[in-house]
Amino acid sequence: MKKSIVLFALGITSLNALAVDTSTISITDAPFSAIANDIIDDSHAIQSATNFAIQNNKSVYIPAGTFNIESTLDFTM
After folding, report:
1. What is the tens place of the pLDDT at every residue in 60-74?
2. What three-state secondary structure class fits 52?
C-alpha cells in the first residue's frame, strides 16, 4: 500500500512539471531547433524564434549553453 501512495505522489509531481507556459517560446523548440554547445550556426533559429515571438506577442527563452551566432540578429521588427 505504501508503494502505491508514493507512486501516486510522484505522478502528481510529474504532471505539474509538464505544465506549459504558452506565453514563452524556446529557441530550442521545434521548428526553431537551436542546439547549444555544437559548432552549427544557430543564427537562423534564433532569428526565426525572435520573429515569431514578436509577431505573436510572446517572450523568447534562451536556455543555458553556448549558441553559435555567425550572422547579425535583428530584433527591431
Report:
1. 999 999 999 999 999
2. helix
